[in-house]
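Let's practice the habit of predicting before peeking. Look at the sequence and jot down your guess about where helices and strands might fall. Then scroll down.
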Amino acid sequence: MSVTTVLGAGIAALLAAIAAGLVYRDAEAVGVDLGSPLLWSGFVLVTSAVAATTALIAPDAPIPGVLVIASLGPLLYLLERDDSMYGDGPADPTRLPNDGDDPDRPDE
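Done guessing? Here is the structure:
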């Protein structure tokens, strides 16, 4: 194993730990509906570990695929966070989510 591989793996592990910590802190502050903060931070670590393992075991694996696997945990958390914060009302296909709370407002 070269020094570059070890250094890259160390940086990737540090970034994954930072991302998991940020997800845990945010999930605790927001109060996500599905799961617990520990579960979401663990999911971020697992997806990062799967991406790192894929890159180490199969060096010919396409980098975009490895990045998709690595970003899967934080992206799914962000979707759940958004749903926890704004997902209680019924969907209205004629309005944007940040369009205001007045449903009887005339069209402009």
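How did you do? Residues 47 and 72 are 7 Å apart (CA to CA).
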